[in-house]
Amino acid sequence: MKNMKRRTEKRKAGDELRREYDLSRLKGGVRGKYVERYRAGTNLVLLSPDVAEYFPDEQSVNTALRTLIRVAKGPIRRAR
């Protein structure tokens, strides 16, 4: 009986939003806005506002990431 009570308490706690979620920032959302992209297998990523300032569109983000990947895969240079 004691174990059953713990399960119920955990389930109830999981049904509520965490304290760190600011509901005032969640207003104005559109339900299902990206559902078609999701179904198509597109990777959606939300950029932080400070990062998004540098990228006006998805092409600029992709270009920057491809450059970073190319640099990261390049040969390692040793310091002299």
Task: Sum this structure up briefly.
With 80 residues, the chain is mostly helical. The protein has four helices and no strands. The protein has a domain at 47-75.
Number of strands: 0
Distance between the termini: 69 Å
Shape, per Cα inertia axes: extended
- Estimated helix fraction: 40-55%
Largest sheet: none
Strand content: under 5%
Mean model confidence by pLDDT: 81
Structural classification:
mainly alpha
Q: Segments where pLDDT lies below 50 for 5+ residues?
A: none
Count of separate DSSP helical elements: 4
Rg over CA atoms: 22 Å
Q: What is the H-and-E element order?
A: HHHH
Structure write-up:
This protein has 80 residues and is an all-alpha fold. The protein has helices at 2-14, 35-40, 49-52, 58-73. The longest helix is centred in the C-terminal third of the chain and has 16 residues, at 58-73. It starts with a helix and ends in a 7-residue tail after the last helix. The model has no long low-confidence stretch (mean pLDDT 81).
